[in-house]
Write a structure and sequence with these properties.
This protein folds into 2 domains: about 140 residues, Aspartate Aminotransferase, domain 1 (Alpha-Beta Complex), CATH 3.90.1150; about 260 residues, Type I PLP-dependent aspartate aminotransferase-like (Major domain) (Aspartate Aminotransferase, domain 2, 3-Layer(aba) Sandwich). It has a 7-stranded mixed beta sheet with strand order 4-10-9-8-7-5-6, sandwiched between helices. With about 450 residues, the chain is α/β, with parallel strands linked by helices. A hairpin with a 5-residue loop joins strand 11 and strand 12. It contains 14 helices and 15 strands.
Length: about 450
């Protein structure tokens, strides 16, 4: 039986953003949101062209996935070579050397002098779940303590770890037990380091004894939570509590890792060494790959067969990741991250001097953000202003993302490979957008 083709499908043959958006709304559930109503045709480095031929400067980087830019030729060539040989075996069935090589490199790059081991996965949420599994297997304890404002993923376990209800937890409970949340230090909003550490100690009095806690999990810089860096004294204090009670420290570097903050791992900048590190996002330059790296004795705790996954450590993504490491070395991207970040901070501070509604500019390396408060009051988060800025920027051809517990933070995750001329062009568009939105 022939069914008539809906009008929106016929119209979509023209390839406009509007017609594709109509098809999308009919085909996808509303829970899969979309920040910008454009559809990509092609991209290069830090620039995107949509299906209507319009150019956009990308200050979002696929949410921190494109530190090496869109379609880097070195990464594309490595992927093409791999596909010509084989695309999949499942590493647990038939292994391949590239997986071992990447694990060796990640082990060598991880902070601390202890011997390390690495396992590969597909997504950041997978990496976080496996880090929790490994921590529980090693300590033989169930409890995990995360922090308010954190984001660790959208699976059931990682939603439980995430310290933000809307939109990530709405309607999805119940969540796994033995997960607790302490305060995250935030001097801007009146949460001192000591208050945050005291909230951890309070959990030991009111919710779970420390002898049943397997691990603390902490983002070196909260991503979705608003780009707040964890103060060095807080990390040191947390590690002291952890060591006193045999608790592990997991650094969730899904967003901060792969050079975003000016070092390969953000936790390299910590005064202490984490026991386990999760990475994903920019690890493979746009291909799905994640990793858990940690002390060998901890990583070896799960029994054979307890770790893995059908697509975990895809040979195609592994080839991309090895190329990413090569690009970082050849193009000195860690140093460039620091230069890009400094250029961003200078530009944003200039905007803040002209617009009191910008109450803070922050972030290490090229993980930079600014926060908005009504009338310049940090205690009155201005999510509406953030939405207006994102919309004004989109109208001018600049892709931006907001974040934060109250939705009042604009984050910048531009590729580290961005030409400085394009970076300056994007900053100029952002300045115009801010001026228009805050007028």
């Amino acid at each position: 039986m022939n069914h008539p083709v809906p009008e929106f499908v016929q119209a979509a043959a023209k390839g406009s953003n509007a017609t594709l958006m109509a098809r999308r709304q009919n085909a996808l559930p509303r829970g899969v949101s979309q920040s910008h109503s454009v559809f990509i045709s092609h991209a290069h480095n830090s620039e995107i062209w949509d299906v209507e031929g319009r150019r956009h400067i990308d200050f979002a980087g696929g949410i921190a996935v494109l530190n090496t830019g869109h379609s880097h030729p070195e990464i594309t060539a490595a992927v093409q070579r791999q596909i010509e040989n084989f695309s999949h075996t499942c590493f647990q069935v038939v292994a391949y050397e590239s997986y071992v090589e990447l694990a060796e490199k990640l082990n060598a790059m991880a902070p601390g002098s202890a011997v390390k081991k690495t396992m590969l996965l597909s997504t950041g949420a997978e990496a976080v779940e496996n880090a929790v599994k490994i921590a529980r297997a090693h300590t033989r304890r169930p409890g995990i303590i995360a922090f308010g404002g954190s984001f660790h993923g959208r699976t059931n376990l990682t939603m439980g770890l995430t310290g933000k209800v809307a939109p990530y937890k709405l309607g999805f409970g119940p969540f796994p037990g033995e997960i607790y949340h302490a305060l995250y230090p935030n001097a801007l909003h009146g949460v001192s380091v000591e208050a945050a550490l005291d909230s951890v100690r309070a959990l030991f009095k009111y919710d779970i004894e420390p002898e049943r806690v397997a691990a603390f999990i902490l983002e070196p810089v909260q991503g979705e939570g608003g780009f707040y860096p964890a103060p060095a004294e807080f990390v040191a204090g947390l590690k002291a509590i952890a060591d006193a009670h045999g608790i592990l420290l997991i650094a969730d570097e899904v967003q901060t890792g792969a050079g975003r903050t000016g070092t390969w791992y953000a936790s390299e900048q910590w005064p202490v060494v984490p026991d386990l590190i999760t990475t994903a996002k920019s690890l493979a330059g746009g291909y799905p790959l994640a990793a858990v790296t940690g002390r060998a004795d901890i990583m070896d705790a799960p029994a054979p067969g307890g770790l893995g996954g059908t697509y975990a450590g895809s040979p195609v993504a592994v080839a991309a990741a090895l190329a990413v490491l090569k690009v970082f070395e050849q193009e000195q991207l860690l140093e460039r991250a620091r230069k890009v970040g400094e250029r961003l901070r200078v530009g944003l501070r200039d905007m803040a001097a002209r617009h009191p509604a910008i109450v803070d500019v922050r972030g290490p390396g090229a993980m930079v953000a600014f926060e908005l408060g009504q009338g310049g009051d940090v205690k009155r988060p201005d999510a509406d202003a953030a939405k207006r800025i994102v919309a004004e920027a989109a109208a001018r051809g600049l892709i931006l993302l907001s974040c934060g517990t109250y939705g009042n933070v604009i984050r910048i995750l531009v590729p580290l490979t961005v030409p400085m001329a394009v970076l300056d062009e994007g900053l100029a568009l952002l300045a115009d957008s801010v001026a228009a939105a805050l007028a």
